[in-house]
Design a protein that fits this description.
Rossmann fold; Alpha-Beta Plaits; alpha/beta; 5-stranded mixed β-sheet; 15 strands; 6-stranded mixed β-sheet; 296 residues; single chain
Length: 296
Amino acid sequence: MKAHSYRVDEGEGDTMQSLELTEVSAGYGRNEVIHGISLSIIEPSIYVVLGPNGAGKTTLFRTIGGILKPSSGQVKLDDVDLFYSKEARKRITYLSHLNALPEEMTVFNALKYYADIEGGDAEHVLDLLNLRDLKDKKYTSLSQGQKKRVSIGKIFLRDRDLYLLDEPTSNVDPKISKEIRDILIKLSKEKFVLYSSHNLYEAREIGTYLILIKNGELKFFDKIENVKTKQYRVGVKSLNDISKLLPESKLDNGYYVVTVDSPKMVAKIINDLVQAGAELVEVRELDNPLQEFFEE
């Protein structure tokens, strides 16, 4: 299959750090799932891995993490082949979309179990993710959302260079999701974070870069801010009638909807409305440009 090669090369630190995939194909038995993927990352940041179900996101993560051996190509962290280097893999942590922790252990004992194996501080994780109220509960007795929180805690037991997070906020309530995203945003100032999600708005909120996987191939890799949309619609809600101030708008579910060429035009429209006496209560974006990747 034809390979798609992209490169991100920004930001310089005191030491060189890079994740390099070169013509990587991988799968299960004779079923090849990802095909000829090449990319180079040299900047601590959050890279959102986006794609429809079955696109190959989890297989990509498992291959980068050294769980799956590539059928062809190489995955390297700082020029070291991850599959063949145990030391290199110690610099990585992988959160599966499955909640895999010992079912009959208490939350604290499960975290301590992994801390004893891999190193780290279970007490620190209890405080970081507000898990102290669950400390003595058996993992099997937790709700799905609570299990997810504890599973996420495992990746923060000790410091890593590369974090592979497969849908980390699925089945987690919005408050906890935001807390997790805030931790990751802070972490990404110095670390590489690959973060898969089906939530397009979450991807735009947390990510700096977008890695798009479709049919096992890399289709797009660039900064999310460079993603262009075919149209940009904004909904404006006002306490008074602004139809004459926005004659080109359409009223839809209480919003005056206007289409503009770019987000930059929104500020001028809002300013003009306020100057003309509009009593605005809400302005919201109605389209997510990332949606177009799923519609192509």
